């Protein structure tokens, strides 16, 4: 793809959506950056040949009126439990189905496409869009800034949303691409849980370039779950950025189950005193997956706490690099940053690496890390087999146990079971 | 036709890291019998237990082991278990993320035909009953397998597994070590509960203490990687009263240990 071709394309795309000038300019400026910037630089993963720009302009999509009209593979991805409220479904670049709870709407909750949100709440969107995540980080970020399309979730002050809000980003077609952008703003004292699913369902070469921005205002409680489950021909990148203000509380639950190329990055800035972030990151890689998963926390304020729990299993010839970075800046005294990153390799060709990084510029803090890379313990296998369990079943128990130590810490039981199901299906493939 | 199990060990030799540890073990255990294998530390008792179960570290160099006429040494570890062999280990592994209940149910179902899995209700009923008998707290079934367990809890868990899995030959390796007298009684209660013509038991211990609560039919002294003396329960009593020196003297043994014993 060339910048010139895309300039025209973006103007057209933008005007079709009747976007305001600020957004059109942002897109064009981002596009200009694509040519200038380098690809992201990653610890121990070379992404040069991944093909982030290997796509053709994306056709438009028909929206549907009811859940039943959605393609079956999309319907199946909706997490079990209460699906009655809060659902946003995007196919490639367009919203094709939305459902909101009228009660929540009355309370001022917004959950709709960015396109729609910009028409109705332009100033609100402008205030937050591409702030925590910047389009000039690298070429992939610039591409995203140029072509983003997604959803906006806004929870007003002190509103407590009791049912998880789900966003589904599905890819279909050959050499298509999507640039899903999920923007979440939780105002002071509010509470919300969001689940975002990313997958393709035709198994063709596609590019998925996703970003989530989360703004946790003072004393708000937010949980964001992402499940990436793309097939082996997909280049899947996801950047998650969050800013947590005073006494805000953010929980990330990250499920990385993609099978092709995966670049998964979570970065949280603890800006306000007493802010907390927890990260539960699970990965299961198979086939010839190449993946790089990073969880990064920056503590800027006093009494901030963070905890990263990352577990990755690699089988077949899959490779996963697992990075955990905890940064405590000068002045962020009495803060606590903990991390543990563990990789379990199942087959002799599977490769894994865990890089624990603590960067501490303040004396009065506590921090700890644990990292390990290993294979299944033959003595554990022996113990299980000595009770009649077959080698394959024993290995499965050990792997599930390895992941379950993190899964069972996830606050929602239905989400726990949903993740267990995905792990089980993927493991048996 | 009787359904009595029979384990036959003939001239079994094994090594680890080029050290010969087992040097020709002979033993026959039948259903209904309780055999005690006694001996000082470092004489190869646990190695015998491990070799019988198929521990990956040990290499059998000679001899044979038959369970009900089947060649045990040819079998994979899980096949040995399915054939009815059970080992309560001296140092059981800890497995994070796998609950005791899930593990036990997998183990029970592994022995059953597909489609004939134990129902959840029945499983829970059985488990509760046995946990009661072993005075194990009910929260135990949801804890991770042996993770963070005290020594005593691990031992009870091994016995619980034995009770749930109904083996034909059970080997209990130092099931008494580190237990106080009350815990010891509880563990013995579990073993006695299972006593029947359909179960043969090998109790490995270096104290006679446990044998006050589980009466053995045969007692064997283990030294230098093999059985050096056999007798009835009175042998255990004499060992308790007089120690092992008289056996060594009688047999002309200076160093009873094998490999490079602990210094
Ligand atoms: N896994 C092992 N690696 C190296 N040496 C071993 C191992 N297991 C046993 N040995 C050797 O065998 C000897 C006997 O050990 P063991 O069978 O545990 O004796 P016991 O149970 O009678 O105390 C030890 O002293 C040691 O030299
Ligand atoms: Mg021993």
UniProtKB/TrEMBL annotation, chain A:
Coiled coil: none annotated. InterPro entries: Fe-S_cluster_assembly_SufBD, SUF_FeS_clus_asmbl_SufBD_core, SUF_FeS_clus_asmbl_SufBD_sf, SUF_FeS_clus_asmbl_SufD, SufBD_N. It holds the Pfam family SUFBD_core. It comes from the Bacteria. Residues 172-402 form the SUF system FeS cluster assembly SufBD core domain. GO terms for biological process: iron-sulfur cluster assembly. Residues 87-166 form the SUF system FeS cluster assembly SufBD N-terminal domain. Belongs to the iron-sulfur cluster assembly SufBD family. NCBIfam families: sufD (TIGR01981). PANTHER family: FES CLUSTER ASSEMBLY PROTEIN SUF, UPF0051 PROTEIN ABCI8, CHLOROPLASTIC-RELATED. This is Fe-S cluster assembly protein SufD. It comes from Seinonella peptonophila.
From TrEMBL, chain B:
CDD domains: ABC_FeS_Assembly. SUPFAM superfamilies: P-loop containing nucleoside triphosphate hydrolases. Transmembrane segments: none annotated. GO terms for molecular function: ATP binding; ATP hydrolysis activity. The keyword Nucleotide-binding applies. Keywords: ATP-binding, Nucleotide-binding. The keyword ATP-binding applies. Residues 7-249 form the ABC transporter domain. Belongs to the ABC transporter superfamily. Ycf16 family. This is Iron-regulated ABC transporter ATPase subunit SufC.
């Amino acid at each position: 793809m060339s910048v010139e071709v895309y300039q025209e394309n973006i103007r057209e795309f933008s005007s079709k959506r009747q976007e305001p000038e600020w957004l059109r300019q942002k897109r064009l400026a981002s596009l200009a950056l694509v040519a200038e910037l380098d690809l992201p630089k990653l610890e121990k993963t070379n992404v040069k040949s991944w093909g982030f720009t290997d796509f053709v302009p994306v056709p438009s999509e028909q929206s549907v009126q009811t859940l039943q009209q959605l393609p079956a593979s999309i319907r199946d991805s909706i997490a079990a439990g209460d699906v009655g409220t809060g659902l946003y479904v995007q196919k490639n670049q367009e919203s094709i189905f939305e459902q909101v709870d009228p009660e929540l709407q009355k309370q001022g909750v917004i959950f709709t496409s960015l396109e729609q949100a910009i028409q109705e709440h332009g100033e609100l969107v402008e205030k937050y869009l591409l702030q925590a995540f910047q389009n000039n980080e690298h070429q992939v970020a610039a591409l995203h800034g140029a072509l983003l399309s997604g959803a906006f979730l806004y929870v007003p002050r002190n509103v407590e949303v009791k049912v998880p809000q789900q966003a589904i980003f599905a890819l279909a077609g050959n050499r298509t691409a999507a640039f899903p952008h999920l923007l979440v703003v939780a105002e002071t004292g509010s509470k919300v849980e969001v689940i975002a699913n990313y997958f393709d369902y035709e198994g063709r070469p596609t590019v998925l370039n996703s970003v989530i921005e989360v703004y946790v205002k003072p004393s708000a409680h937010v949980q964001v779950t992402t499940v990436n489950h793309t097939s082996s021909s997909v280049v899947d990148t996801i950047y998650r950025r969050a800013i947590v203000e005073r006494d805000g509380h953010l929980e990330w639950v990250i499920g990385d189950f993609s099978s092709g190329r995966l670049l998964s990055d979570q970065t949280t800035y603890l800006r306000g005193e007493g802010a907390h972030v927890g990260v539960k990151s699970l990965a299961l890689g198979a086939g010839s997956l190449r993946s790089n998963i990073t969880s990064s926390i920056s503590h800027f304020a006093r009494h901030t706490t963070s905890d990263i729990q990352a577990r990755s299993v690699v089988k077949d010839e899959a490779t996963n690099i697992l990075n955990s970075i905890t940064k405590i800046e000068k002045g962020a005294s009495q803060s606590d940053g903990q991390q543990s990153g563990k990789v379990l390799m199942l087959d002799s060709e599977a490769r894994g690496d865990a890089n624990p990084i603590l960067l501490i510029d303040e004396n009065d803090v506590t921090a700890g890390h644990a990292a390990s890379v290993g294979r299944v313990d033959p003595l554990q296998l022996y113990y299980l087999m000595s009770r009649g369990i077959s080698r394959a079943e024993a290995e499965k128990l050990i792997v599930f146990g390895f992941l379950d130590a993190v899964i069972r810490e996830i606050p929602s039981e239905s989400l726990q079971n949903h993740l267990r199901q995905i792990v089980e299906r993927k493991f048996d493939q | 036709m009787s359904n009595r199990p029979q384990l036959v060990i003939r001239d079994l030799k094994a090594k680890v890291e080029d050290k010969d540890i087992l040097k020709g073990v002979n033993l026959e255990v039948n259903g209904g019998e309780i055999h005690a294998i006694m001996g000082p530390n470092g004489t190869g008792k646990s190695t015998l237990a491990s070799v019988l179960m198929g521990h990956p570290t040990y290499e059998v160099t000679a001899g044979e082991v038959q369970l009900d006429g089947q060649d045990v040494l040819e079998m994979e570890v899980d096949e040995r278990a399915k054939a009815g062999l059970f080992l309560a280990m001296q140092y059981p592994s800890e497995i994070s993320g796998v609950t005791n209940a899930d593990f036990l149910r997998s183990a029970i179902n592994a022995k059953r035909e597909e489609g004939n899995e134990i129902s959840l209700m029945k499983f829970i009923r059985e488990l509760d009953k046995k946990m009661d008998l072993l005075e194990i707290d009910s929260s135990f079934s949801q804890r991770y397998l042996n993770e963070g367990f005290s020594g005593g809890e691990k031992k009870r868990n091994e016995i619980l597994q034995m009770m749930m899995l109904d083996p034909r030959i059970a080997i209990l390796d130092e099931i008494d070590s580190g237990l106080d007298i009350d815990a010891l009684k509880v563990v013995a209660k579990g073993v006695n509960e299972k006593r029947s013509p359909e179960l043969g038991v090998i109790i490995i211990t270096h104290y006679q203490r446990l044998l006050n609560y589980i009466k053995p039919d045969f007692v064997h002294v283990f030294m230098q990687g093999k059985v050096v003396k056999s007798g009835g329960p009175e042998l255990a009593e004499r060992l308790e009263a007089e120690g092992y020196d008289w056996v060594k003297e009688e047999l002309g043994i200076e160093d009873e240990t094998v490999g490079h014993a602990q210094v």
